[in-house]
């Protein structure tokens, strides 16, 4: 019964989704080229707002825990589990005050209205998973960026999103480089729950009536502990809170 209801709701959702991406592609271009970073950032914030708002059509609800724990005015490494693209818009909107940037696969850097433009012009970096040297160089660039500008980067150490919610093992390399070249940063472990249910039936129809939870754990100063300990605490904090 739920799946039957999901079909018409998903059609409405995707019509709005496509419209929002096209409209905000133009808005982002104008904001960035005419007024610079601050205006572009505001346009991206509004993009995230509308992308989150349209999920309410699917009966989606959100619960954000411990948002007050997020340090302001310091570089942040937000390390999260990864369940779907809805992780990105959830973090992008609810953690917008810390200017989250993404370490994203290079395939997303072209051909997608709004999303590709933001990845190329908003401070994010694109990595080629088939080219380890390029990937590590891009992550190093991101570390320098957040260190200098006191902003945040989002990294999904699992690499590939989980289609069932069950987490995969965390990879060390990306986190290690971020910590090395952004020594004043805080590691902020984040757990996403139930995002995978949005695509439990695939991309069509979408899941309905889901409650997405974003839990922010205690920030860990990078400079205060060896990387091995920092990595272990981060992975444990994220995984232990997955339902």
Describe this structure in words.
The protein has helices spanning 2-35, 37-53, 86-94, 115-121, 132-149, 173-181, 227-240; strands spanning 61-65, 76-80, 100-105, 125-127, 152-155, 186-193, 211-216, 220-221. The two termini are 25 Å apart. α4 links the parallel β3 and β4 (125-127). By secondary structure, the protein is α/β, with parallel strands linked by helices. Strands 1, 2, 3, 4, 5, 6, 7 and 8 form an eight-stranded mixed sheet that branches. The radius of gyration is 18 Å and the shape is globular. The protein has one domain (2-240): Glycerol-3-phosphate (1)-acyltransferase. α1 runs antiparallel to α2. The protein has seven helices and eight strands; from the N terminus they run ααββαβαβαβαβββα.
Features:
243 residues; Glycerol-3-phosphate (1)-acyltransferase; 16% strand; 44% helix
Largest sheet: 8 strands, mixed
Q: Return the structural class.
A: alpha/beta
How would you name the oligomeric state of the polypeptide chains in this document?
single chain
Question: Would you identify the regions where 5 or more consecutive residues have pLDDT less than 50?
Answer: none
CATH class: Alpha Beta
How many DSSP H or I helices?
7
Principal-axis shape equals globular
Q: C-alpha Rg, in Å?
A: 18 Å
What percentage of residues falls in helices of 4 or more residues? 40-55%
Distance between the termini: 25 Å
**Structure summary, number of beta strands:** 8
Succession of helices and strands? HHEEHEHEHEHEEEH
For the record, the CATH architecture stands as 3-Layer(aba) Sandwich
